[in-house]
Design a protein that fits this description.
heterodimer, A: alpha/beta, 2-enoyl-CoA Hydratase, Chain A, domain 1, Rossmann fold, N-(1-d-carboxylethyl)-l-norvaline Dehydrogenase, domain 2, 3 domains, eight-stranded mixed β-sheet, six-stranded mixed β-sheet, 19 strands, 12% strand, globular, B: alpha+beta, Peroxisomal Thiolase, Chain A, domain 1, ten-stranded mixed β-sheet, 12 helices, 20% strand, Thiolase_N (chain B), Thiolase-like_sf_Thiolase (chain B), acyltransferase (chain B)
Chain lengths: 702, 395
C-alpha cells in the first residue's frame, strides 16, 4: 500500500467516511452465497455528504480487503441515505505544498479504487444518492452500477479546474464511448456544472439499471443476482475504433474554448488529453497519466484560485458579509415595482415567484402597466407549458400581480423597488411622491446601476429606508445582488433588503453607496482602458483579443454588445462625472450611440462572427497604437488600482467581496479567483499598489 | 354475504426484535416494503385498480401515524387515486383490516384491496402514550391486571389450574422447534419480502429472516427463566411472544374479480367473528369468537383441519386447545410454529396467520376448512374461518 499520507499543516481535520461491511444472504433473492455490502457513511446527515480524504480512502481499502476475505459471490458499495459520495475531500487540497504529496493522494485513490475493477469477484455500485467526482469514480471502477431514480451524478472536476483523476477520465470513455464521455466530463462540467439525472445517467450508459428509492437496495441486489445468475446480461462495447473520437474531442475543445473566451485553460485541455489517450491506453497507463495531471493541477495557482472561488461562492451564498441581524428585518407582505418595462417586469416576476405576495406595478399610463402585468403572467404560463410549474401555482401567482397608472396602489407595500429611467431627478421626484403613499417603514429600493442612492434620499422625511438593490441582467439568471447602503440607511432597512434578497435566492454583497457599486465600477474601468486603446489607434481586433488568454468568458467588445453601447456610455459618463477622468468617455462609443450602431460584432448568415463595418467606420483614428501586451497590461493595472481604491474607500470591506462580485456578477472564471488572486499572482497588484490583495496561500500556492 | 371474498396473496417483512435489526428503520418504511413486495409478486394487478388500503397499527403516532393506511399507499408509489385508512384493534389489527376489507368486498363496494398491519415496538413500546381512564379502576370496570398483558396470561393459569407452566413451556419449545424445521425446509422464507435495514454503526443490510427465533430452546432453559409479571409466576419471556418490529400485507378480492384477472386464490373467506371476554383473561378471547364464527359458518370444531393461532402467550393457546379438546401437540395447530418463535409485532400478526394457513391449504388439499384466530387486549378474540380452494376431498 502507498506510503502513509498525512494531511498538510493547516488543513482541517478530515471528516472520515467509514466503509462498513456486512454480508447479505443472496438466497432470498434467488442467488447463491452471499454479497459483501460496503456502506459508505461518515456518520453525519446528508448535509455533510460522504467525501474521500486519505483516511476515508484507506477505510475503503480496508473494507475491500475485509469484503474479499469473506469470499463472497459479489461485492457491492452503497451510500448513506440520500448520498453515495460527493467526491474527493477538497478541504485539504488548498494546503498541499509538495507535488509528491499531491501525487501520493492521487495514487492512493487509484490504488484503492482499482481493486474494485481488478477484483475477480464481481463488483457493483448501488448509487443510492448523490455521486459526484471521486464518488462517481468509485462506482465507475466497479463492474456494474445501479442508480436510484432520484440520484444526481456528475463529474464536476473540470468545472473546478481539475480532471476526473481517480479513474474517471480513463474509464468513462472506454465504458460509454468518446461522445458521451465528452458530454459528461466536458460539456456538463463546463455548462455550470450540470448534473445528470438518473435517467440521463442510464441513457448515457454511465449506469446499468435504475430503481425507485423505496426499495432501491433490494432491487439492486436483485439486479446483481440476475447478473451473477446470467439471467441479466450487460453488454460492454469496445469503443477504441469508434468513428466519433475526432469529432467528440473537437466538440469538447470547442466547448472549452467558448467557455473561456478562446483561452486554453489547463484543466479542460488536460481532461481532453486524458480522454483522447483512453482510446488506446491501458487502464494502468491512463491512471498513471491521471496522477501526473492531477499533481500538476493541484500544484498550480489557477486551481488554488478556483478552490478559493468555489468555497467563497458556497460560503457567501449562505452568509452575507457585514449583514445586520436577520431579526431586524421587517416582514414583506406586499411589493411595489415602479415601472413596467422589461427590467421592471423581470423584477416583478422574480418577486412574485419567490415571495408569493401581492406585487403591484405602475407605469406612466394604464396600457404600459397592463403590458408589464401581461408579460409577467405570460412568463408564468410558459413555466406551466414547460411543466416547471403547476397550473395552480401559476394561477396563484398570476392573481397576485396587478398594475395601474395610479401610484396609490403602492399603499400598504412594505418594499417598493424602482426601475425607471436612469435620471436622478426623476428618481428623486418619485421617492418624494412615494413617501406620501407608503408607510414610513416601507423600504424604498432602487435598481440604479450607477446613480447616487444617497442623492435620491435628498428631501425625504425618512431617508433611512432607502437602499440600493442592484440586479444584473437577466435578473432571473444572474446570481449577484449588490445591496448599497447610503450614509443614512438603517439596519432594519438593510436587514429587510437582505431578507428579500435571500428569498430571491441571490448571492449578496453589502457595499457603500458609491458610483457603479462594485461590478460596474470595475467592468467600466477595465473596458475603458480597452476602448481608450482603440481610440488611441490600436486596432480593435488587437485590443479586443488582448485579454483572450486570461480566460474571460467574453471579450470586452462582446460584453459591450451585450450591455448595449447606450447603457455602457451612460455608465461611463456617470462614473467619469463622479469618480474622475480616469473614467474616460470614448468618442467612438459616443458616435456609435449617436449613429444608432448597436453592435461591434455582427453574425453572418453562415454563423461566423465578424467586426461590424458600421462600427469600424466610427472608430476614432488615434495615432498612438498599443500592442496587445500593452493593452492587457494597462487594463489589468487599472483593475488593480481601482480595486485597491474601492477597498481604501470602504466600498466593500474585504477583497473577497470584490472577487465574489466578479464571479457572480460578471461571470468571471473561477481560475482567476474572481480577479484579485489573478492580479496577485501576475504581479500586477504589487507593481500597482505595492501589496497583494490576498495573503499567499489564500487563493494561491503557499 | 353477497359475494365470496378470496385471499389472492399475502406477504410479510422478516420480523425483527425491538431494538434489533430494524432499530434504524421506520415503521412506515417496513409497511411500504411489504406492500411493494406484495405488488411485485402480483404483476397482473394494476396498482390503480386497488380500491382501498387498510393498514393497522396499535400505536398510531409518529412513523405509524398520519393515517398509516393512506400514508403507506402514497409512500408505496400507488397512484394517488388509491385511498387508504388506518385500523386499530390492538393485536388483531391486521386481522381486522382483512375482515373490514372483506366486508367491503362482500357488500360490493370494493373488488380488490390491500389489508395489512405494522408494528415497530422498538419505536413504539407497549403502552406508549396510554392514558387509562381512572374510572377503569375506581369503578372496578377492570382490575389492574387487565391492563398488563402478561398479568392476564398469569390470570389464565390461575383460572385453569390444569394449564401448568410445564405445559406452557413445552408448547413454547415446540413452537421454536417447528419454526426451526420450517426454516430448514424453506417454508417460511417463501413469503418473506427481503427488507433493507440500516444501522448507522454497521451500515446497510437486508433482512431475509426473522430475528427472534431461538431454535436451541430447551425445557431446562425455559424452566430457569424469570417470571416478570409476578413473583413465582408461570409466564416467562420464553413462553410468550417477544417485542418485535414487522409489517404484513394481504391482497383480497372478490372471487369474480380474481377469476376474471386470472389471479391465484389462496383461501376463501367463509366468515369471521369477534367476541369479548373478561379483560383480565383476554387470552381466552379466541374461544368465544371461534364458537361464534363456527356457528355462523354452520361448522363444528371437528370440521376444522388447520389452525393458525397467534401465540401471544403459550397459556392462551393451550387454553383454547383445552376448551375444544385438542391436544397441545396436535399437528393441525401452527405447523410452522408461531409468534413465540418468530415474534408478534402486534397489529401486523393477523396477516401472518393467514399467509401460514394459505401455505397449509396449498400443502394439504385434504384439508377443507381452516381457522385463524387470536386474542386481543382488553378482553377480546377474533376468528376468521377460511375454506381451502385446493380441497380435493378428504383422505
Amino acid at each position: 500500500m502507498s506510503a502513509d499520507i498525512t494531511l498538510p499543516a493547516g488543513a482541517p481535520e478530515e471528516v472520515v467516511t467509514n466503509a462498513l461491511v456486512r454480508d447479505i444472504d443472496l438466497s432470498a433473492f434467488g442467488g447463491k452465497g452471499s454479497m459483501a455490502l460496503i456502506t459508505l457513511d461518515n456518520g453525519h446527515d446528508h448535509n455533510r455528504p460522504n467525501t474521500f480524504g486519505p483516511q476515508s480512502v484507506k477505510a475503503l481499502d480496508a473494507a475491500i480487503t475485509d469484503a474479499l476475505g469473506r469470499n463472497p459471490a459479489a461485492i457491492a458499495i452503497t451510500g448513506k441515505p440520500f448520498i453515495f459520495a460527493a467526491g474527493a475531500d477538497l478541504s485539504a487540497l488548498s494546503f498541499l505544498n509538495d507535488r509528491n504529496q499531491s501525487l501520493a493522494i492521487g495514487k492512493l485513490g487509484h490504488d484503492v479504487f482499482r481493486r474494485l475493477g481488478e477484483s475477480s469477484i464481481p463488483t457493483f455500485a448501488f448509487i443510492n444518492g448523490l455521486a459526484l467526482g471521486g464518488g462517481l469514480e468509485v462506482g465507475l471502477h466497479c463492474h456494474y452500477r445501479t442508480v436510484a431514480t432520484t440520484a444526481f451524478t456528475a463529474l464536476p472536476e473540470v468545472f473546478l479546474g481539475l480532471v476526473p483523476g481517480w479513474g474517471g477520465a480513463t474509464i468513462l470513455p472506454k465504458l460509454i464511448g468518446p461522445e458521451r464521455a465528452v458530454q459528461v466530463i466536458m460539456l456538463n462540467a463546463l455548462n455550470n456544472n450540470t448534473m445528470m439525472k438518473a435517467k440521463d445517467a442510464l441513457k448515457l450508459g454511465v449506469v446499468d439499471a435504475m430503481y425507485e428509492p423505496a426499495d432501491f437496495l433490494e432491487r439492486s441486489i436483485g439486479f446483481a443476482v440476475g447478473v451473477l445468475n446470467g439471467t441479466t446480461k450487460i453488454e460492454r462495447a469496445d469503443y477504441s475504433n469508434d468513428p466519433a473520437w475526432e469529432s467528440a474531442l473537437a466538440t469538447g475543445k470547442a466547448a472549452a474554448l467558448k467557455k473561456y473566451g478562446g483561452a486554453t485553460i489547463a484543466s479542460p485541455f488536460k481532461a481532453l488529453e486524458l480522454i483522447a489517450a483512453a482510446r488506446t491506453n491501458t487502464l494502468a497507463q491512463g491512471f498513471d497519466a491521471e496522477d501526473q495531471v492531477l499533481a500538476d493541477l493541484t500544484m498550480s495557482d489557477p486551481l488554488r484560485a478556483s478552490l478559493y472561488a468555489f468555497n467563497l461562492i458556497q460560503k457567501k451564498r449562505k452568509k452575507v458579509e457585514g449583514a445586520p441581524k436577520p431579526a431586524l428585518a421587517r416582514k414583506v407582505t406586499k411589493v411595489g415595482v415602479v415601472g413596467a418595462g422589461l427590467m421592471a417586469s423581470q423584477l416583478a416576476l422574480l418577486m412574485v415567484r419567490n415571495l408569493k405576495v401581492p406585487v403591484v406595478m405602475t407605469d406612466i399610463d394604464q396600457a404600459r402597466a397592463e403590458k408589464g402585468v401581461a408579460w409577467v403572467r405570460n412568463e408564468l404560463t410558459k413555466q406551466v407549458e414547460k411543466k416547471r410549474m403547476s397550473p395552480e401555482s401559476a394561477a396563484r401567482l398570476s392573481a397576485l400581480v396587478s398594475g395601474s397608472a395610479d401610484q396609490a396602489i403602492f399603499a400598504g407595500c412594505d418594499f417598493v423597488i424602482e426601475a425607471i429611467f436612469e435620471e436622478l431627478s426623476l428618481k428623486q421626484e418619485l421617492f418624494k411622491k412615494l413617501e406620501t403613499i407608503v408607510s414610513p417603514e416601507c423600504v424604498l429600493a432602487t435598481n440604479t446601476s450607477s446613480l447616487s442612492v444617497e442623492r435620491m434620499t435628498e428631501g425625504l422625511k425618512n431617508p433611512e429606508r432607502v437602499v440600493g438593490f442592484h440586479f444584473f441582467n437577466p435578473v432571473a439568471v444572474m446570481p449577484l445582488l449588490e445591496v448599497a447602503r447610503t450614509s443614512t440607511t438603517d439596519d432594519a432597512t438593510t436587514a429587510t433588503a437582505i431578507a428579500v434578497g435571500k428569498e430571491l435566492k441571490k448571492t449578496m454583497i453589502i457595499c457603500k453607496d458609491a458610483p457603479g457599486f462594485v461590478v460596474n465600477r470595475l467592468l467600466t474601468r477595465f473596458m475603458g482602458e480597452v476602448t481608450d486603446a482603440v481610440d488611441e489607434g490600436t486596432s480593435p481586433a488587437v485590443a479586443d483579443s488582448a485579454m483572450m488568454e486570461i480566460g474571460f468568458p467574453m471579450s470586452p467588445f462582446q460584453l459591450l454588445d451585450l450591455v448595449g453601447p447606450g447603457v455602457a456610455l451612460h455608465v461611463s459618463e456617470t462614473l467619469h462625472n463622479n469618480l474622475g477622468p480616469r473614467y474616460r468617455i470614448s468618442p467612438t462609443m459616443q458616435r456609435m450611440v449617436k449613429e444608432g450602431v448597436r453592435n461591434f460584432y455582427v453574425k453572418g448568415d453562415d454563423g461566423t462572427v465578424s467586426a461590424n463595418p458600421a462600427a469600424l467606420a466610427l472608430v476614432e483614428k488615434g495615432l498612438t497604437p498599443s500592442t496587445a501586451e500593452q493593452v492587457r497590461s494597462r487594463a489589468l493595472k487599472a483593475l488593480a488600482e481601482e480595486a485597491r481604491m474601492m477597498l481604501d474607500e470602504g466600498v466593500v470591506t474585504t477583497p473577497a467581496e470584490i472577487d465574489l462580485c466578479m464571479l457572480m456578477g460578471a461571470g468571471w472564471p473561477m481560475h482567476l479567483g474572481g480577479i484579485l488572486p489573478y492580479l496577485d499572482r501576475e504581479g500586477v497588484s504589487e507593481s500597482v499598489t505595492g501589496k497583494l490583495f490576498h495573503d499567499k496561500g489564500i487563493a494561491s500556492l503557499p | 354475504m353477497s359475494r365470496t371474498v378470496v385471499l389472492v396473496d399475502a406477504v410479510r417483512t422478516p420480523f425483527g426484535k425491538a431494538g434489533g435489526m430494524y432499530a434504524g428503520t421506520r415503521a412506515d418504511d417496513l409497511m411500504v416494503r411489504a406492500i411493494r413486495g406484495l405488488l411485485e409478486r402480483n404483476p397482473k394487478i394494476d396498482p390503480a385498480s386497488i380500491e382501498d388500503v387498510a393498514i393497522a397499527a396499535a400505536t398510531q403516532t409518529g412513523d405509524q401515524g398520519m393515517n398509516i393506511g393512506r400514508s403507506a399507499a402514497l409512500l408505496s408509489g400507488l397512484p394517488n387515486t388509491v385511498p387508504g385508512y388506518s385500523i386499530d384493534r390492538w393485536c388483531a389489527g391486521a386481522l381486522t383490516a382483512v375482515t373490514t376489507i372483506a366486508g367491503a368486498i362482500a357488500m360490493g363496494t370494493n373488488e380488490i384491496a390491500i389489508a395489512g398491519g405494522v408494528e415497530h415496538m422498538g419505536n413504539h413500546p407497549m403502552g406508549e402514550g396510554m392514558d387509562p381512564n381512572p374510572r377503569y379502576l375506581a369503578e372496578r370496570i377492570v382490575e389492574q391486571d387487565a391492563l398488563a398483558m402478561g398479568a392476564t396470561a398469569e390470570r389464565l393459569h390461575d383460572r385453569f389450574p390444569q394449564l401448568t407452566k410445564e405445559r406452557a413451556d413445552r408448547y413454547a419449545m415446540s413452537s421454536q422447534l417447528k419454526t426451526a424445521k420450517a426454516y430448514a425446509d424453506g417454508k417460511i422464507q417463501r413469503d418473506l419480502i427481503p427488507t433493507a435495514a440500516r444501522s448507522a454503526e454497521l451500515g446497510w443490510t437486508v433482512a431475509t429472516a426473522d430475528e427472534a427465533p431461538r431454535p436451541q430452546t430447551t425445557m431446562e432453559g425455559l424452566a430457569g427463566l424469570k417470571t416478570p409479571f409476578r413473583p413465582s409466576g408461570r409466564v416467562t419471556p420464553g413462553n410468550s411472544a417477544g417485542l418485535n418490529d414487522g409489517a404484513t400485507a394481504a391482497l383480497l378480492a372478490s372471487e369474480e374479480k380474481a377469476l376474471e384477472l386470472g389471479l391465484t386464490i389462496k383461501a376463501k373467506m367463509l366468515t369471521y367473528a369477534f367476541a369479548g371476554v373478561e379483560p383480565e383473561i383476554m387470552g381466552y378471547g379466541p374461544v368465544p369468537s371461534t364458537l361464534k364464527a363456527l356457528k355462523q359458518a354452520g361448522l363444528k370444531i371437528e370440521d376444522i383441519g388447520a389452525f393458525e393461532i397467534n401465540e401471544a402467550f403459550a397459556v392462551q393457546v393451550i387454553a383454547f386447545l383445552d376448551h375444544f379438546g385438542i391436544a397441545d401437540d396436535d399437528v393441525r395447530v401452527n405447523p410452522y410454529g408461531g409468534a413465540i418463535a418468530v415474534g408478534h409485532p402486534l397489529a401486523s400478526s393477523g396477516v401472518r396467520l393467514i399467509l401460514n394457513l394459505a401455505r397449509t391449504f396449498e400443502a394439504q388439499p385434504e384439508v377443507r376448512y381452516g381457522v385463524t384466530t387470536m386474542c386481543i387486549g382488553l378482553g377480546m378474540g377474533g376468528t376468521v374461518i377460511w375454506e381451502n380452494p385446493h380441497f380435493k376431498g378428504a383422505k
